[in-house]
Structure formats: C-alpha cells, structure tokens
Write a structure and sequence with these properties.
By secondary structure, the chain is α/β, with parallel strands linked by helices. The chain has eleven helices and eleven strands. A hairpin with a 2-residue loop joins strand 1 and strand 2.
C-alpha cells in the first residue's frame, strides 16, 4: 500500500507537524500551541486514552463547547483508531439520549458547562471524564509508542444529522473521507500556506470539526473561539490572514 492510500488524518497531521514544527497550529484566546507542541500533546493524550481502556473501534463521546481540547481528543482518537462522537449540546435531553444510545460510547469527555446536562441523562455506568483534565493528563503521560491506526477506512467521527425528518441520525465519517474533503476544500477555495481558519461554528458540526481537522492536516493556523464570540471573531478577521470564513445565518440567529 502506498503513502497516498495508507494515509490517515493522524499521519497527515503528524507529517505536517514535523514540517511546520515551530508554526502556530492552534490559537485560543491568549494561548497558542505550535505544531510541534500540539503533536507531543496528541501523542501523550493518545497513551492516556489507552490507559482509560479505549481501543481501536471504540467510541469516545464529547459534550463540550469549542475549545482546543476538543480537537486534541479528536486527533488522539485518530492516532489510536478510536471514533470521536461529537454530541450536540443544543438538543433536548430526550434527543441527546437517543444520540448517545445510537453511538454507544465507551467513555464520555464533558466540559464543566455541560456536566449538569449530561447528569440528567441515563448513560449507564460509562466512565465520564472532565475535558478540562486533558492537558494535565497529557502532561503526566509518556508519548504513545503503540501502533497507529493505519486503516484509512476506519471511522473517525460520528456527527449527528439535523433530524428534520425524524430523530437525529449519526453519520460515520472515515479517515479517507476526511482527507478527500480536505483536498477538495483546499483546491476549490485556493487555500495557500499561511492562511488561517476561524473555528467558531460548533465542533459538533461539520463546519467546526471538519474544517479544523482539514486545516491542521494542511498546515494552517486554527483560531478557536467559543461559538459566536464577536469580539474574538473580529480580532481574528482584523489580525490574521483568513483563507476562508464560514457564516451560517441559521446558526448565527
């Protein structure tokens, strides 16, 4: 199998990180992580996830606002072959329980903002971890020396449909699909090296997650904001070379 057909989201991110080691990968408020720093965090977090019992093919559910740890968890899942189920916090509790039951997660990562919401839903005896502990867990862990997921047909993301014709449905997106969409995104929009992406759309949405992962595979800086934070968004538009900007009227309303 050649490199083009064997690549995964993690291996492409890693190749970019080794090449652009000192360049900024993620900016969030006043904090920044270079590509080299982000790669080390991902490798350490991957081992921490293995320590929690997560295996290839297992589902890890995330219920959180936009934050760097969200993306870090997704890339750590990409490394070990786990699947990140991105839960929509806008859903009513009954709808959210349906989505959780559909994706059958082994473990939950939840932010303090949505901890009370998750507590109202019967999730069985699954392990629940505070997403705020991701960076400390990574700092305390060694770098993962285990095998990387090498199957581009493995699922990486589970995103919920809108449910306009019934209950929301979970769409499974593979590594290969993410890579293909990144390639088309780059060609169609003419994205150049140095262009940045403003990740304001919810990361349970394709516009947040897919474009963030695509950006990190192709070497762009991702500026993460906590949803429609207009001050942060205007600052990014004023001070960074944005290659493209997603604005969805329904989401903004």
């Amino acid at each position: 199998m050649n490199l083009a057909t064997a690549s995964t989201v993690y291996t492409l991110f890693r190749a970019t990180a080794l090449w652009r080691d000192a360049e900024i990968a993620i900016r969030h408020r006043e904090d920044t992580w270079s590509y080299g720093e982000l790669l080390e965090i991902i490798d350490r977090l991957a081992l921490a996830l293995r320590g929690l019992g997560l295996k290839q093919g297992d589902r890890l559910a995330i219920l959180s606002e936009n934050r760097p740890e969200y993306t870090m968890l997704q890339l750590a899942c990409a490394r070990i072959g786990a699947i990140a189920a991105c839960l929509n916090w806008r859903l009513a509790n009954e709808e959210l329980k349906h989505c959780i039951d559909t994706v059958t997660p082994e473990i939950f990562f939840v932010s303090s903002r949505f901890k009370a919401k998750l507590a109202k839903i019967d999730c069985g005896d699954k392990t629940t971890v505070s997403i705020e502990t991701c960076l400390p867990r990574a700092a305390e862990s060694e770098r993962d020396g285990g095998p990387c997921c090498d199957d581009p047909e493995m699922g990486l993301l589970l995103l919920n449909t809108s449910g306009t014709t019934g209950w929301p449905k979970s769409a499974l997106i593979s590594h290969r699909a993410e890579i293909a969409r990144m390639t088309i995104l780059r060609m169609d929009l003419g994205i150049e090296l140095g262009d940045a992406f403003l990740a304001w759309a919810p990361m349970f949405h394709m516009g947040g997650t897919e474009h963030t992962l695509s950006s990190l595979m192709m070497g762009s800086c991702v500026i993460i904001t906590d949803g429609l934070d207009l001050d942060s968004m205007l600052d990014a538009i004023q001070n960074y070379q944005l290659g493209w900007l997603i604005l969805m009227p329904a989401t903004i309303e």
